[in-house]
Amino acid sequence: MSMGVPRNFDNGTIFLLQYSREQTVASFCKLIKFPKCFRLHLKKKMFTHFGRSNILCLCKRHYVRLVEVGRLNTQKLMNQKYDTGQLFFHQIFGCRGVILFPWLVRLYDRDIVIKADNEVGNVLKGKPHLYYQTLIDERDYPFIRSQREPVTCLGNQDASHGLYTIRGLDYVAQEDILPYTATEKKPLQHKFFDKFLKYNRNKDPPFSAQGTFRSWQKKNHPWLELLDVHKETTENVRVTVMSFFVGYRESQALYWWRYCILLENVGEQSVQLRERHWRIFSSSGTLETIRGRGVVGQEPILSKKSTAFQYSSYVSLETPIGHMWGTFQMEREDGHLFDCRIPEISLEGKSYYGKATCGTV
């Protein structure tokens, strides 16, 4: 089988790699000012393209083809918003997605501690930062190092106040957006893509919100709202935490929150998450300690090839106010163990969420 080769290397063209056997989209390569030699990692198989010749070498006996999907656009500055309908690649996970709408959150970055004048010690302040509600392409789920279950819990504002989840609905930071223009009218596969957006060739980006999307956004705003994001780095392992109030479950007399954690290895050495240690404080005065192996049944390895891992979980309290913090025990390649700090997050319930029962659609 002949393999497609980029026609122009320096024009921002984007290609997807596909197995000849499976015909499954597996990864992407953004082609901006190619170096003389670059490597593509696909399911742990190594591919090397030498210079600007039309040679694609495979270290294993697998064949792939390059499929053009669009052209990269210029990334916007940190204070410039992307529009609804903007297609993008995820800077960290490499998956495709589309922007629905922005959130202006308070980012508490403990790696950038402000030293206030005339004060002793350091003062941590939340800074405005753009995040986006996005839909992720269903074809890329198997290749994302995060949980395959839904990542967002939404409230259905009917009489039962039921909660449900939508697979592939995610939050992405401004700096992780790689915008691009697609070469096809339906570049993303998700069950809500056609319900939320419509194609408009005279618009840039060429997808605009439909009335059903605006109604959905207004209806589910309380359950989607992202207010605070916390970051902290320990020995080159960065932890980002987001939390969301889910609701009050009357049958259990408990308030529930969902939290999402992104771990990134920003160093040179591989590390593996071995244990978790949480402390959860309730305004009633109780302090709960939780220890366990790994997270969500896994002990993920963060390496140069796979630098990040994301997961979601839940926590409950008998009171509507509390906070939680903790550590991950990490192990380096040489066996060195260290505790990676999880930044403290607040747990605050809101009265307008009402009663909740959880389910999945």
Biggest sheet character: 12 strands, mixed
Radius of gyration: 22 Å
State the end-to-end CA separation. Answer: 41 Å
Helix share bin: under 10%
Averaged pLDDT: 78
SSE string: EEEEEEEEEEEEEHEEHEEEEEEEEEE
Number of helices: 2
Topology, number of strands: 25
Give start-end ranges of low-pLDDT stretches.
1-10, 19-63, 114-120, 150-161, 352-361
- The percent range for strand residues is over 45%
Q: What structural class results from the helix and strand content?
A: mainly beta
Shape: globular
Protein name: ApaG domain-containing protein
InterPro entries: ApaG_domain (IPR007474), ApaG_sf (IPR036767), Hemimethylated_DNA-bd_dom (IPR011722), Hemimethylated_DNA-bd_sf (IPR036623)
Domain ApaG: 231-354
Pfam family, one: DUF525
Question: Can you describe what's shown?
Answer:
One of its GO terms (molecular function) is DNA binding. Pfam families: DUF525. Residues 231-354 form the ApaG domain. The protein is mainly beta. It contains two helices and 25 strands. The protein has helices at residues 193-196, 211-224, and strands at residues 13-19, 25-30, 37-42, 45-50, 56-58, 64-72, 87-90, 96-109, 127-136, 153-155, 162-165, 169-173, 177-182, 197-199, 207-209, 228-234, 237-249, 254-265, 271-282, 287-293, 301-302, 308-317, 321-332, 337-348, 357-358. The strands form five sheets. Strands 1, 2, 6, 7, 8, 9, 12, 13, 16, 17, 18 and 22 form a twelve-stranded mixed β-sheet that branches. Strands 19, 20, 21, 23 and 24 form a five-stranded antiparallel β-sheet that branches. The two termini are 41 Å apart. Mean pLDDT is 78; it is low at 1-10, 19-63, 114-120, 150-161 and 352-361.
